[in-house]
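Hey, can you fold this one?
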Amino acid sequence: MRQPIPFELSKDQSFFDSLGEWIGDVLYDELPEKGLECRDEQIFMAFQIEQALKEKQVLFAEAGVGTGKTIAYLLPAISYARYTGRPALIACADETLIDQLVKAEGDIGKLQSLLDLKIDVRLAKSRDQYLCLKRFEDVEKVETEDWIDDIAFTIPEEVYAQGPMLNAVPYGERSDFPTVSDEDWEKVNYNAVMQCSVCDVRNRCGQTLHRAYYRSSTDLIICSQDFLMEHLATKESREREGQLPLLPEVSMMVLDEGHLLEYAAQKAMTVKVQKTTIVNLLERLMVDGVREKTLYTMERLQDEHELFFDELQDCIADSSEERMRIVKSERLLNIGHSLLKTVEDLLEEFVFESEMYMIGEYELNMAEEFLEQYLEAIRIFVAQGDAVDWLEETDGEQTLVIMPRLITEILQEKLFSKKMPIIFSSATLSVNKDFSYIAYSLGIKNYQSFSVPSPFDYEEVMKIYLHHLSQQEKMARVKALLAEKKKTLILFKSKQAMQQFKNSLSIMDRMSMKIAFEGERELSAIVRDFQEGELIIFCSYHLWEGLDLPEEALTRVIIFDLPFPPSDPLFDAKRSFVEDPFEEVELPFMQLRLQQGMGRLIRTSHDHGDIHILLNEEEAKVKEHFESILAVTPINK
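Sure. Predicted structure:
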């Protein structure tokens, strides 16, 4: 049921004037009287957001750690949602941050308790965070490990009953299965091959039930930035096909840790072609009764697809980066053109097969949808236009990734051209209060901005050490530091760098250290074990931002490498559009990322600890470019 606006409206003043007065009363008086600290920086931020709502502007709200950013944006967001009759959307950097935001002791829970507010908040997680019944049923037939039974026991009885699903509760979220590894989860979760629109069990699917639930929210919908970008990328096509968009219309957006929006957009606005997916898909269609010509065309497509990926492998430029550059040979392009013809031939054959009813309707529809997307991807690849493409490993297999247009153009068209208040909230949006890098990266031309510092006295609670050494000496230095048992987060610039460190440790080392590495299990489960003391050391290459571990839960951060962007096709494309790549791309990226990583240490007024930054000879040469952003004067070692 829709709740009333949390303050009285009068004919004598506008909604926004009344909102400003209420925010002042709550932050200056009501919350401090109930034990929360009155923070000038938080109050300033809340009033700036109120102004952005009034003017329907993009706002870069940079506020240091400890400001109370979440409460500063929740108060105006909830009020504006109730005033407009449409929910506010909060898009977090990842699924872990969603869980932190809605946990019982989080800021939403505090506001409900302290202000006696009933807040209707619902989660909209990325599609890969939900169980796919079709994939689960296939894997259940062959999987013998216990994890598959753990998932099976959670599926409601109504899912397999013949009756209506009126009383079924949403089920099948990734976070429901903390002991299931990422590798196993990726066998049964939704993936892009699955065509939900033609699935015969879509109305019994946990993802469908979750979507119906969050659509009914009246106050807040919380999702990941990945999911928001997927919504924008698919909105037009879903509406053309008569489907609802992934998200409903909202009144405003808050992009928490908004500096990460660019990466979420890159992930959603790309087209992916995997090495084995189409081969496996066609295998399922080769059933008895299929016409010989159709079988021959499917086999021809399988052979040409495998040949295409073999040639792709030969066309990779030497690189250790995750995004591998492709030097397109004439033979590769010729195979691509042949693929286009074969796919078109097969789609024609499927028209005849649909009248024969030998291939199941769902399987045939799914194959047709997939082949249409495949056709478009290969067409863009061989055209050699402005698209950016590369080869990477996704879910354990080779994947061709194609970005049809630069993200700046797409975001400007699909998001920032709308007259809607959009609030970027983060402790690190600027470099020395200059917001031009993030604005340029996202294609934002008109915006408001402000920057307020953290209220913490960093000199009293934190030390920063700069270690000058060779790259080969870094691993030994980390092991020496870890001899002192402190709750430690080690940040790496890439998965490969983390893996090299992991490989340098023996099994006995890892057991004695109580160490965990990102990707070994579901991420929020590792974070929880680390916070509760089950783990002493946590190694990550993604959690440069958003990880919130106060007090004794984290007392040391080790930065293994300066987080410069990779030398890959995506960043090379960005470099090609600027006059000075180092000053305009490399340096601001590293500075922002470094600030984010250091920001993991001090989260509350009770926190303390050390930061250790390891610098090889090349990294030491750029020390003058980041010393000015360090919170305290560093100690050289």
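The mean pLDDT is 88. Let me know if you want another pass with a different chain boundary.
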